[in-house]
């Protein structure tokens, strides 16, 4: 028996709060361009989702001669009977087609993406692929790297008439208020605060708007659109109960020990370790430290560049955790006694792969193990690599207009060498990926050698240095093989102490390739000195070097508790900074509150300096000038990393204490 239709009013941002019980109204369908009456009826009936309709319309655009109903059946999105019934309803009730609540014809996803900078040819490539695979246009644009996730989220929000929730808003959320909401598991949408008495719910997929509205119908939900990464981050940082999960796992282990059945339950230690790693990932930690004091094992996280004690555990449990790391990483005990070892963290077994799929699909882990004395003095550091952390937009990294213009000039070049320098965890990879995503991957072949690959890009040719590859010879062979593959742009992860690799990169930069790489130095000018120490010739370096970007990450003050900084030492810094004269000064300092867990900080911001190799700087490099002389000439007082940090202090973004901690040595 055919289903009857109940035409509902369109849900708007100003709608009255939903009463308990009835389902939330559907949002407008994700339809490119003009709406299809047939598609509208099928969606309203419930046999077709908005995403399915968008997919079918994209396929029809590639084959306009075919009826929409034929395409829907061909793609197995609905049956022929569904199509016939909808056609009869369309014929018999023309006044009801399309949906009365449908908004007037509006800009399509393609039009919005073009207005946001997407190239016509990229959209055309995506539509051609959609016709073959049946994928949605946004998914293809994202996979090919034509559009970053945030731009895509903004476009979807605009297309469907919702507000956009930016990732920068994550650090401003009220952790205490969110903590009172019950969100038992991740479902693709999360609450992100309140506005005008309504609960804001961030959704990353339009198809889940209805589900999200129903899940929070008691709170009068107001939908906003965010990227999938933003939604995941909010859930993991504010709503997941990972610390409680860890405590429950430890309690289960201790109860088993008390009952004498711990040896019969080896999975208990795995549960503790998995809960620990999950908590570290969800808290946004870059490093997880395990070491032993006199009486207990200490578990510490590094979040936003600052250490935080997580838990202390009994010595016997600590030793079992470290033994598990040694055993499952494949490290031999005798090798560890001789010297520190490097490996990857393994979650072995089908059960572990299923239980920790949420972290294994997003994060990669490097393990450093060391032993001071006997096996009871083992210690470990787990580096956590977030494969989604590098989905940053170049325009949103925070560069001033002058610096951004110079970097864009480098990106437009066909040859030359660009270096990004800074310590581990300073955001070098994020910056490089954001810069390279400004280069059209269709017009220019981008090839990389990385250790490890932290972010997969659909149209880049990426190679990873394997674990068993010798640092020198193996990497050199990989680099030489890459050069035979006709790259236009090369990203080489890091130049270390290998002169042959360094010279090969310089040769590539001088023979029709644009080369990007990284170094570990304290300032931009010191990168020149570092390359000279390796053995690179000054003239060869001067011939190809375009610029050196040095950067750090400083913590951002918690907006909920930061307070005015009137200390004389802070005021004195501004008196000396003549380049800030005339600018409003609003220095703030950290205080600490529940929202920031007492740290006074939430999130991080980049500070930087750019050494642009202008002709006079090139001459100084060729003449063998010292790095300090080059730095003084190339980087003015108001353009140094210290000056960049001091501007953030003047704006109340970070504190003088934090900038001094990060940039004091390079003032």
How is this fold's topology laid out?
Blueprint: H1 37-45, H2 50-62, H3 68-74, H4 80-92, H5 109-115, H6 120-133, H7 137-143, H8 149-160, E1 163-164, H9 175-179, E2 189-195, E3 198-203, H10 209-215, E4 221-225, H11 228-239, H12 242-259, H13 267-282, E5 285-292, E6 296-303, E7 306-314, H14 315-328, H15 333-338, E8 341-344, H16 350-355, H17 357-360, E9 363-371, E10 378-386, H18 401-412, E11 416-421, H19 428-436, E12 446-450, E13 461-464, H20 473-483, E14 489-492, H21 499-509, E15 514-519, H22 524-534, H23 538-544, E16 545-557, E17 563-564, H24 568-576, E18 588-589, E19 601-612, H25 615-622, H26 627-634, H27 641-650, H28 656-663
Parallel strand pairs: 1-4, 3-4, 11-15, 11-16, 12-13, 12-14, 14-15
Antiparallel strand pairs: 2-3, 5-6, 5-10, 6-7, 8-9, 9-10, 16-19, 17-18
Helix pairs in contact: 1-4, 2-6, 12-13, 13-14, 20-21, 22-26, 23-25, 27-28
Could you explain the architecture of this structure?
Helices cover 41% and strands 18% of the residues. By secondary structure, the chain is of the alpha/beta class. Among the domains are: 165-240, 2-Layer Sandwich (GMP Synthetase, Chain A, domain 3), CATH 3.30.300; 242-386, Beta-Lactamase; 394-553 and 604-635, 3-Layer(aba) Sandwich (Rossmann fold). A hairpin with a 6-residue loop joins β9 (363-371) and β10 (378-386). The longest helix is centred in the middle third of the chain and has 18 residues, at 242-259. It is globular and about 85 Å long. The N and C termini lie far apart (78 Å).
């Amino acid at each position: 028996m055919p289903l009857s239709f109940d035409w509902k009013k369109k849900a708007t941002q100003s709608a009255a709060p939903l009463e308990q019980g009835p389902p939330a109204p559907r949002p407008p369908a994700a339809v490119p361009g003009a709406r299809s009456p047939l598609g509208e009826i099928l969606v309203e009936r419930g046999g077709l989702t908005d995403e399915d309709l968008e997919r079918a319309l994209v396929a029809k655009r590639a084959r306009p001669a075919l009826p929409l109903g034929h395409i829907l059946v061909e793609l197995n999105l609905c049956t022929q009977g569904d199509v016939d019934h909808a056609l009869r309803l369309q014929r018999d009730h023309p006044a009801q087609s399309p949906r009365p609540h449908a908004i007037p014809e509006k800009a399509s996803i393609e039009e919005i993406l073009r207005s946001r900078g997407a190239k016509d040819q990229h959209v055309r490539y995506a539509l051609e692929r959609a016709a073959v695979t049946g994928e949605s246009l946004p998914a293809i644009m994202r996979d090919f790297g034509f559009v970053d996730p945030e731009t895509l989220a903004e476009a979807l929000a605009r297309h469907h008439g919702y507000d956009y929730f930016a990732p920068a808003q994550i650090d401003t959320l009220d952790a205490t208020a969110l903590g009172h909401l019950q969100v038992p598991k991740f479902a693709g949408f999360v609450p992100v605060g309140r506005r005008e008495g309504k609960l804001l719910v961030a959704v990353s997929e339009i198809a889940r708007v209805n589900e999200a509205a129903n899940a929070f119908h008691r709170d009068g939900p107001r939908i906003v659109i965010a990227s999938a990464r933003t939604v995941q981050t909010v859930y993991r940082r504010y709503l997941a109960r990972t610390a409680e999960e860890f405590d429950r796992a430890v309690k289960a282990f201790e109860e088993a020990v008390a009952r004498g059945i711990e040896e019969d339950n080896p999975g208990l230690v795995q549960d503790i370790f998995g809960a620990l790693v999950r908590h570290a990932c969800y808290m946004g930690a870059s490093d997880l430290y395990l070491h032993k004091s006199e009486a207990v094992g200490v578990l510490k996280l590094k979040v936003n560049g600052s250490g935080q004690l997580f838990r202390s555990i009994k010595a016997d449990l600590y030793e079992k955790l470290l033994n598990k790391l040694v055993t499952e990483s494949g490290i031999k005990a005798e090798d560890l006694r001789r010297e520190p070892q490097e490996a990857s963290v393994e979650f072995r077994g089908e059960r572990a792969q299923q239980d920790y799929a949420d972290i294994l699909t997003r994060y990669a882990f490097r393990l450093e193990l060391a032993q001071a004395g006997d096996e009871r003095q083992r210690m470990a550091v787990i580096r956590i690599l977030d494969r989604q952390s590098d989905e940053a937009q170049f325009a949103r990294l925070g560069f001033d207009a002058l610096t951004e213009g110079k970097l864009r000039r480098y990106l437009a070049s066909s040859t030359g060498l660009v270096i990004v320098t800074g310590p581990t965890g300073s955001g070098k990879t994020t910056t490089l990926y954001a810069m390279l995503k400004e280069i059209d991957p269709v017009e220019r072949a981008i090839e990389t050698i990385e250790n490890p690959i932290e972010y997969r890009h659909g149209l880049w040719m990426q190679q990873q240095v394997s674990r068993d590859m010798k640092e020198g010879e193996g990497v050199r062979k990989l680099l030489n093989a890459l050069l035979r593959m006709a790259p236009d742009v090369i990203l080489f992860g890091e130049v270390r102490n290998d002169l042959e690799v360094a010279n090969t990169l310089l040769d590539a930069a001088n023979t029709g390739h644009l080369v990007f790489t990284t170094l570990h130095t304290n300032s931009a000018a010191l990168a020149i000195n570092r390359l000279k120490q390796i053995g690179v010739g000054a003239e060869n370096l001067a011939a190809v070097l375009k610029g050196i970007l040095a950067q750090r990450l400083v913590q951002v003050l918690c907006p909920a508790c930061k307070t005015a900084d009137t200390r004389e030492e802070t005021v004195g810094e501004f008196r000396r900074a003549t380049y800030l004269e005339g600018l409003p000064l609003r220095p703030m300092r950290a205080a600490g509150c529940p929202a920031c867990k007492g740290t006074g900080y939430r999130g991080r911001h980049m500070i930087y300096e750019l050494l642009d190799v202008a002709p006079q700087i090139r001459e100084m490099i060729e003449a063998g000038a010292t790095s300090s002389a080059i730095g003084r000439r190339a980087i003015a007082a108001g353009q140094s990393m210290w000056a960049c940090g001091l501007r953030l202090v003047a704006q109340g973004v970070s504190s003088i204490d934090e900038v001094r901690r990060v940039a004091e040595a390079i003032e």
